[in-house]
Specification:
5-stranded parallel β-sheet, 5 strands, homodimer, globular, 7 helices
């Protein structure tokens, strides 16, 4: 399980698709669980306060567990703003299979690109509980097992490579078990 | 998607595993979503009143949709006691991919076998909202697209065959699309 998290527009979905393409080329079956997509289906009845966000992550992690049990490498892309939420996801998925990746980008940088137009809306107060503005984002602890990718400093191929360098040996060691 | 439903002990889980074994032999990837299993994970925070049961089925159908989108034949085994719930599942999954199978057995027959000891508990009033006793089970309409399997009259291999006769041609026609 590759757990990508970070603020809106940091590059999580782009990374998820790049990872999927690379893993497909290696013959590895994958499933992307994307926060925006899940909120159109499984999580459509959830809001954005802390409890709803925790439930959003809990359901995602439980769904990931179902895919992992089917032998499918699962790539999650969620804002997942609090350490507690990440810790819960890790518990549900299981330490052994959880690769935590912080997709790091500055609020200002993401607001400037504003691919989905959300930052402009948030500036006008039109987005409820917007992470980084109305709701805090907790970075991982300085000493943590998370891979930190600064997407404003490094290109997509370098970021993808850093994750695959960790993930591919783990997939192969599982296969040979 | 093979949607198996019926009262507790009717044979849903047994059928699901038999179907999985047969489909695996055909090289078809499957995922079983079992009501009891999901209530230990994704649906652990749900009770047994009608609203909670509807949400239980909604989440199962949305999760099935995610598996179907990954190319995995999904087999659900839920009591799913109301026609409305089945209709909702069909809507979420999509008419084209939904094979509805009513796993039919009598309350008395299931109570007699009582594999999980639930009927004995229910008789003592120790199981909340037990389907067929405290909570009603709605059979499919007389004229419906559901396959009806009477598991007290026919053995597992005959029941499995009846489902596979419908499902396998549909899998092959999808592959060739």
């Amino acid at each position: 399980m590759i757990w990508l998290y970070g603020i809106s527009g940091a590059g999580k979905t782009t990374l998820a698709h790049a990872l999927e393409a690379h893993l497909a080329a290696e013959g590895v079956l994958t499933r992307i669980l994307d926060g925006d997509e899940l909120r159109k289906g499984l999580n459509r009845n959830l809001g954005y306060d802390d409890d709803a966000r925790t439930e959003n992550i809990r359901r995602a992690a439980e769904t990931a567990r179902l895919f992992l049990d089917t032998g499918i490498v699962t790539i999650a892309a969620f804002i997942c703003p609090k350490r507690d939420m990440r810790e819960m996801a890790r518990q549900i998925v299981g330490e052994d299979e959880f690769v935590e990746v912080y997709v790091k980008a500055s609020y200002e940088g993401c607001a400037k690109r504003d691919v989905k137009g959300l930052y402009a809306k948030a500036a006008k107060g039109e987005v409820k509980k917007f992470t980084g503005r109305d709701s805090s984002f907790e970075e991982p602890e300085a000493i943590s097992s998370a891979i930190v990718l600064e997407t404003e400093r490094h290109g997509i191929s370098r970021c993808t490579e850093r994750i695959l360098d960790v993930v591919i040996p783990r997939i192969h060691s599982r296969k040979s078990e």
